[in-house]
Each structure stands twice: as structure tokens, then as C-alpha cells.
Write a structure and sequence with these properties.
- The longest helix is centred in the N-terminal third of the chain and has 17 residues.
- The protein is globular and about 35 Å long.
- It has 2 helices and 4 strands, in the order βαββαβ.
- By secondary structure, it is α+β, with helices and mostly antiparallel strands.
- A 4-stranded antiparallel beta sheet has the order 2-3-1-4, with helices on one face.
Length: 96
């Protein structure tokens, strides 16, 4: 299993419980495809570098997880169609 980090930018205009549901849904995608969720880091509301869907702010989350090499492709496919996800990026972390 490889170590990955999911950077997630969530719509800042939705309620707190809806935002938490988006993060839980992303964690659910990780476990659905055989991964294990580690630390979830919340950076809070941040200004975006440029407007996305006419929004200039988003909530940033960083989710550490371990999964098989095929899992990130499946997770990205699910996040691409998820509501209230403005941007996402999965990167593989080097072994330390």
C-alpha cells in the first residue's frame, strides 16, 4: 500500500454540517476503494488564487490515507462528480 494525500477545496457558501458531509463522503470513497484514512487536517476558509464557479473562497482539507495504487484513480472519478467540491488533488507521498 502507498501513502497519499488528498487536498480538497470545498464550497465555502454551504452550511457547516453540509461541508462536514462532503469531507465524510470523500473519506468514504477512500475506504470504499480499499484505503485507510489517516489524519484529516482542516485549514479552514482560505482565499482562492482565482475565482472558481464565481467563488473567491473555499474551505481547505488535507486527508492523509494509505491505499493500493489503483485507488486514487477511482477516488478522483468519484470526486470529479461530487457536489460542492471545487477542486481536489491526490499526490503520492514519498516513503520517509
Amino acid at each position: 500500500m502507498n501513502k497519499y494525500e488528498l487536498a480538497l477545496v470545498v464550497n465555502a457558501k454551504i452550511e457547516d454540517d453540509a461541508r462536514a458531509a462532503v469531507v465524510e463522503r470523500a473519506k468514504g470513497f477512500i475506504t470504499r476503494f480499499g484505503g485507510t484514512v489517516g489524519e484529516v487536517e482542516e485549514w479552514g476558509r482560505q482565499r482562492l488564487a482565482y475565482d472558481i464557479q464565481k467563488m473567491n473562497e473555499g474551505f481547505y482539507y488535507f486527508i492523509q490515507f494509505e491505499a493500493e495504487p489503483e485507488a486514487p484513480v477511482e477516488i478522483e472519478a468519484q470526486l470529479r462528480i461530487a457536489d460542492n467540491v471545487l477542486r481536489f488533488l491526490i499526490v503520492r507521498k514519498d516513503e520517509e
